[in-house]
Amino acid sequence: MKRSILFCVCAVAISVTIISCSSSKKVTASGAATLKEAYKKDFMIGAALNSQQIEEKDSNAAKLVPEQFGVATPENIMKAEIIHPQWGTYNFDLADKMIAYGEKHNILINGHTLVWHSQLPAYARNIKDVDSFKTFFNDHITTIASRYNGKIYSWDVVNEALNEDGTMRRSVFLDKLGDDFVTEAFRIAQKAAPNTELYYNDYNIEQPKKRAGAIAIIKKIQAAGVRIDGVGIQGHWHLNKVPLKEIEESIQEFSALGIKVMFTELDIEVLPRNFQGADVSQRVASNPELNPYVSGLPDSVQQQLANDYESLFRLFLKYKDKVTRVTFWGVADGNSWLNGWPVRGRTNYPLLFDRQYKPKPAYYKVIALKTNAASGESAKKPF
Ligand code: XIL
What we know:
Layout: H1 2-21, H2 35-38, E1 44-49, H3 51-54, H4 59-68, E2 71-74, H5 80-83, H6 93-105, E3 108-115, H7 122-125, H8 130-147, E4 154-159, H9 172-177, H10 181-192, E5 197-202, H11 208-223, E6 230-233, E7 236-238, H12 244-255, E8 260-269, H13 299-318, E9 323-328, H14 361-371
Parallel strand pairs: 1-2, 1-9, 2-3, 3-4, 4-5, 5-6, 6-8, 7-8, 8-9
């Protein structure tokens, strides 16, 4: 408790300093610099938005998102099961709203995602012959990518094509099209969306074996003369176990391929879980022991979360010439997918804003890295 009082005093002091030192900077109503403003010269800061937020039905998010974030990813509404529910029938309603939302608030949009084995409608999973599957694959990418060419900033063209050991994941794409489906997806996307950046996105690709698999995929795309602009490391990590060394190596190795490096789905799990990663098909039965913080996050955990985020952002800043975007998977704790996955009905706390959309200690630590010269990017602290 004492710590949190001390923390609040510090936070107020920081806010007052900001008001008095930088009146020209964009600030929130409370006077604090926002994430996107604080990191303006370093990399873009984004959030995944759910449909309530895209339609501005969530009044807290409607105010907070344009203040804090310069780029957004639709959490679900551009996935095949929603945007292409029946073969040849597209539902662009919410995706068009996302584009309009971005234009209205000057927020860039990262499309998510053209090719993914999950949230794929049953008709696509059940296509039997290879030629029909090729037609589906080509039509799906071409129709969606060309519709938003020039309107959308970037696409996660292929999501999660790899196993943990770096081999190709078994999926309908691999079964029907073979290893080359990733390169082909980029080839089709490049043609349909010449003005859109194209990325490969996956979780745990900071880990050495899976990273090697991702590097092989990227090199293969490049060797085919097809454009790939960046790689997204999803960044679904765990409290006190954020793999800083592997993340640093990954930034170095991926950027050496001549592409941008992004952290595209950042959140830090604070609840008990016995596996890492983000395989959406993995489920664990509910159990009160797995949901220990229903009535609030203990101070010590709150501080650890803040420290983890601080270390991560210090690392991102060290590589600000290579890291182009950091996107959180959600806006505030109450709407994080980690309340429902891998265990249903938990009370989780993985983001920078709490259930009331108020900044948490982690938020202030991330902001302080930029506004507090003593602990800023110039300080070469060990990771
Ligand atoms: C998640 C969404 O957040 C959930 O709402 C949905 O039920 C399942 O998918 N990796 C990804 C994201 O690339 O699309 C996933 O999003 C989380 C893991």
